[in-house]
TrEMBL record:
<dbReference type="InterPro" id="IPR032710">
    <property type="entry name" value="NTF2-like_dom_sf"/>
</dbReference>
<dbReference type="InterPro" id="IPR013325">
    <property type="entry name" value="RNA_pol_sigma_r2"/>
</dbReference>
<protein>
    <submittedName>
        <fullName>Uncharacterized protein</fullName>
    </submittedName>
</protein>
<dbReference type="GO" id="GO:0006352">
    <property type="term" value="P:DNA-templated transcription initiation"/>
</dbReference>
<dbReference type="InterPro" id="IPR052704">
    <property type="entry name" value="ECF_Sigma-70_Domain"/>
</dbReference>
<dbReference type="GO" id="GO:0016987">
    <property type="term" value="F:sigma factor activity"/>
</dbReference>
Length: 193
């Protein structure tokens, strides 16, 4: 029971910090970086230092004042991939991919795709550009996805695709695209009235 309560408190605290950081910076991806840095600094404290402060207040104050100068930037390769997708730039998209890149998608979403893995930079670049480019009213943003570089394709506040990328320093090796609406609910944005 205590473990469940602690987990619920941690998740609530994390949501609270994300809200603060998103309010400050206006970007879910930046908010995620701020929260990760906030927790990194918390766990870098010695146990005696942590005992001297009230955790929620300390974390809230840091998240609301932290500066991003010097933090590790979001993977520029992911930004190049996102821009190429947005523009429908197949050669630009191809330039971000490993020659033997693999694309894996699920099915059941509103976007048409193949249920079988696809391999090879030319085929993957063409398919990814078709799948993720210029759908009316959609927006593609770079955001961490389960701790990996990723992108979210949203129509208004609703996620229609979640993309996870595995990368080397110079190229994308694997692209996982989730399209099934029942798996996308956690990625919908809350619209504040």
């Amino acid at each position: 029971m205590e473990v469940t309560a602690s987990l619920a408190e941690l998740l609530e605290e994390r949501e609270h910090l994300l809200e603060i950081a998103q309010w400050r910076f206006g970007s879910p991806a930046t908010a995620e970086r701020v929260v990760q840095e906030t927790y990194r600094r918390w766990y870098a404290l010695a146990p005696a230092e942590r005992d001297e402060v009230e955790p929620r207040s300390w974390l809230t104050q840091l998240a609301s004042t932290i500066e991003l100068v010097g933090l590790e930037p979001v993977n520029p390769l992911v930004h190049r991939f996102a821009l190429a997708c947005t523009l429908g730039d197949v050669p630009g998209l191809r330039a971000t991919l490993a020659g033997d890149v693999t694309l894996i998608t699920d099915t059941g979403g509103h976007l048409r795709t193949t249920p079988h893995p696809m391999q090879g930079a030319d085929q993957v670049a063409t398919h990814a550009a078709t799948l993720l480019t210029r759908h009316p009213g959609t927006h593609l943003s770079t955001e961490p996805v389960n701790g990996h570089p990723g992108l979210i394709l949203r129509q208004a506040a609703r996620a229609v695709a979640v993309i996870t990328l595995t990368t080397t320093p110079t190229e994308i090796e694997t692209i996982y695209i989730v399209l099934n609406p029942s798996k996308l609910t956690p990625w919908h944005r809350v619209v504040v009235a």
